[in-house]
What does this fold into?
Amino acid sequence: MASKLPFLRRRHRKRSTETDAHGRDQRVAVIGLGRFGSSLANELMRRGWDVLGIDTNARLVQKYSDGLTHAAVADCTDAETLRQLGVHEFTSAVVSIGTDIEASILVSSNLLEAEVPNIWAKAISRQHGQILQRLGVHHVVLPEHEMGERVAHLVTGRMLDFIEFDDDYALVKTVAPDIATGVPLGQSQVRSRYGVTVVGIKRPGEGFTYATAETVVQKGDVIVVTGRTRAVESFAELS
It folds into this structure.
């Protein structure tokens, strides 16, 4: 494992507060500034968060430093480095290290030992994800795998969008099938017959709106439905 690297702290801008209107800490450390980490860090900045971006690659840190609140060249497999960077004072941290599984595990362990309350970690395989979960990482994401599943659903089915959650529950956007049109949703028996709930509706030329029991879905409407993954897959095939 590489030894600790010197680090550089660079302030992009000073904010008047590090909490939101509800008093929640809006600071996050993003460790690993590859494609996933840099995209995440930039989006968090866009949403008004203070972001400390960290990577062992000085070129990456230099590349993204102007867009982040702070940026540091550092090896976070060393617990003392994390302490010097003040990451133990953050309420949120993301380990977005790519293919170096050993570094991902060591950094995650250091964050857990530092008792950071909310830790997200990117995994590159299910086995990697299982190790991170056993360590006690609070949130494990497999972006490549999850995106692959999502695109597979879009390619092979009649869905316009698909999001699956950990507990075999999914959210699907699809064109309304004929069996759900022409009568109020409360009378269509969609939930009892197909095990799904229509939660949103979009008519051509209009924006999405909430669906109620009185909503009458029309032919050509786009709807958002939720339910067990198998149920929403089967329902979307009716389109």
